[in-house]
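Weekly modeling sync, notes
Attendees: S.R. (lead), two postdocs, one rotation student

Agenda item 3: backlog of single-chain predictions. S.R. asked that every request posted to the team notebook include the full sequence so nobody has to chase files. The rotation student volunteered to paste the first one in as an example of the format we agreed on. Action items at the bottom.

Example entry:
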Amino acid sequence: MEPHDADLIQRNLAVVAPRAADVTSHFYALLFLREPALRDLFPPAMDTQRDRLLHALIRIVGDLENASALSGFLSQLGRDHRKFDVLAEHYDLVGECLVAALARYSGDTWSDHTQNAWVRAYAAAAGIMIGAADEDALTNPPHWTAEIVAHEKPADDIAVVTVRPELHFPYRAGQYTFMETPWWPRVWRAYSIANAPDHHGLLTFHIRSVPAGWVSNALVHKAKIGDRIKLGAAMGEMVVDHLAPNPVLCVAGGTGLAPLKAMVEELAYYGTDRFVDLFYGASAHSGLYGLDDLLRLSQRVTWLRVRPALDDLTLAGISGGVSDVVREYGPRYDCDAYLSGPPAMVLDSARVLRRLGLGRDQIHHDPVLGEYPAAVEGSGSSTRAPAGAPG
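Predicted structure, as returned to the notebook:
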């Protein structure tokens, strides 16, 4: 890329952002018109897929001047896209259709310089993704088949599902994976892994069913032991450095507990002496389905303190929603914070922690909508579905 490419691309994205839905719809229309066979790689309903494209573009553009972060994100995308049967030869056509869609909705602001900047940026991104996919293919399958070996319902709308992949599934505590069920082929939804890697090779997921959540409703209300699902490659950058010295602050909302529970397990496995303060909130008592296990663990170890919170209620002497509790019992300034849950809770907690003196580099969570330009805020979804998000 050339020196001014990032600025040209960022300014162009600001222009097309108000019509982002039109851009992504036109992109997919061009793609399927040029290569009809590609339609079979995508789900019947394209709304979620269009959102994912938009959010990925926002993330990529936001990191254009952060080569290390961008390379890591694109490498994960390249590995993950193998589950869709995406091939290297597809990337050129995708780039042509993307640039054409951007040009259509840029109006008079589109220029040869803008087009060339997008072409160069896309070529660089595609090269990283293809390289990561090719390297991953040397050791891993495009997706993993896994059998459900346990299915428990701590609440009517929540299931704790444990699966056994047929092949070794590499991941870090705090990461998530996309899941496909036999009831909704080609519909993939993201769920965080709720346990740290161990010699058993099992993966546990905390899943909340929601209205119109195809995958989540199937997993909560229909799935049973013996059913088989598919998993994509592990993704996400919210992983804990178990060798770091700072105390740890975790803020979980509902089924957002999943990745933080895995991280606490990993810290316990490595014999941490770092103090961990875990704030766990929900809107109703059934949402604190994992509280008993956490309290039992905190009684066995000296380094874990659990602070529950229910919206508008007092629990164990603590009042208010989880962000209010974090504000009242604020952390030490030198801690590392990890946040997971509904996007509004994550963003609110992050703002609270910043006001309490934590730097941006001390606050870790997977990207959620609201961190990005105002033109794309308010669509009600996140860059990736948090644990238990609508499926």
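Discussion: group reviewed the output briefly. The longest strand covers residues 144-155.
Action items: rotation student to repeat for the remaining queue; S.R. to check formatting next week.
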